[in-house]
Amino acid sequence: MKVDSPKLTTTLIYIINNKLKTNHPPFQYDPHGDDLTAIGIQRQRDYGMPGYNEFRKYAGLKPVKSFEELSDVIGPENIHLLKLGYKHVDDIDLFVGGYLENPLHDSLFGPTFTYVIADQFYRWKFGDRFWFSVLGKPWSFTEGNNNYVVIYYNADLGM
To answer: Which UniProt keywords are listed (predicted)?
Structure first.
């Protein structure tokens, strides 16, 4: 499935900024301006998270020294926009760089976000001592419990 990155980015930002907002907390609509994408970028900066180039290293990609070196994962029109918004590639926010990457084959995300999401799921599963597949501990599910979990997840609950 080939997805056009600018279209995907526009669609994701539309969903984040318009579809998640309702008149119910925590996504209440603010008529004076409430941009969840901007909040995500600001949150990254507030918490001192590394930028996009640093996360490229974590994802096994080569860190880049110039905007042109991003051409293997980001289209030329988006590289041009990055040049307008950032002085140096080390300044690119993870949220921005990750959304501008061309998606991997049959995916919605490029290599950096794919790595971040996979790493997060790995940590949730193997960092949670109460995960249902952890066996042999006093708090572990029994084989009967695990069978129930499998049946429950495979059942058609009409939802």
So the answer is: Oxidoreductase, Peroxidase
